[in-house]
Each structure stands twice: as C-alpha cells, then as structure tokens.
Amino acid sequence: MLMVEDVDLTPNPHALKFILNKKLLNSETRQYPDKESAQSDPFAKGIFDIDGVVSVFYMDKFVTIEKSSDANWAQIQRPFINFLKEFNPDLIPEEKEVTVTEEESDELLKKVNELLDQKVRPALAGDGGGLQVLGIDGFTVMIRYQGACGSCPSAISGTLMAIEGLLRRDINPSITVVAA
Fold it and tell me: 140 lies in a domain?
C-alpha cells in the first residue's frame, strides 16, 4: 500500500511535495501540466480527479501536486491519502528504456557543463558552494555538490529539482539529475 511518509514545502506556494513509502519510477519522471495530459496514466489521472489539483509531477518516491490558487490543502490532502491507499502501483505505466550512444553522451556532457557554467555555478559560488558533474549515464546526469552546498538541505532537494528543470527545458526533456 502506498503511503505518505513526509510532506515538503516547495518554493511554489501552491505546490507540495509528498514523499512516499515506495518507489513509483526508477529512472523516468512524469510531468502532467493539466488533466487532459494525464489521461493515459491512471496514477496521475486519479490525482487530477481530486478537486483543486492543477498539475502533477512524480518520480522516484515522491509526487508534487500543484493546487489552484482558490483551493486549500485541506480539501486535497485527505482525498490524496485515501487515493494512495486504494491505488494499485502496478497500474503505473511502464518506463521506457532510453539508450544514448557514446558520441551523444559526450555532446550531452558538453552542453550540460556549458549551461551549468552560465546559469547555475555562479549562483552556487555566491552562496559559498559549487557543483561538479561526475558523469552521464544515458540521460541521467550525476552531480556532486561542493562547499556549502554539500550539506545544504535546499541543495539536496530544491536546487537539484531546479537544475533538472533547467537542463530539461534547455537541453533535453528526458534528462534526470541525481546527487552522488
């Protein structure tokens, strides 16, 4: 049975991150900006059936739900917890295998580092930290935070998601970022 283990605030005041007791996906991430886009995914579709939900993102062991500005979390959280208790995780669509050639991987690594140099590393340096790319496996970028960022809770969650979002938007929507 799926259960919520913890709830984290996000920088978005209309979104909460629900950390679950079981893994939903191994490598993919799934983003649904509206109910129509989730029709082929029973998990996301079920969450959208909760009144007030406007977007769903899930990966690994968490789900981020964004609510409408006029909804309140009390009307969403209890139905979401009940949905999880009843939902069969085997109904989550299977992940697709993605393969990348060595040449594509080298080009991807170059683009990732260029973008990080332009938009991420200067900000981290301003906070007394840094970021090292350890390598790329398929579309998974492995990073290590350095300095003050190495033990900062926001680096481990919020910044990691922001970096992933940036790389997905500017380079390839299949990219995932993991901290080593």
Answer: yes
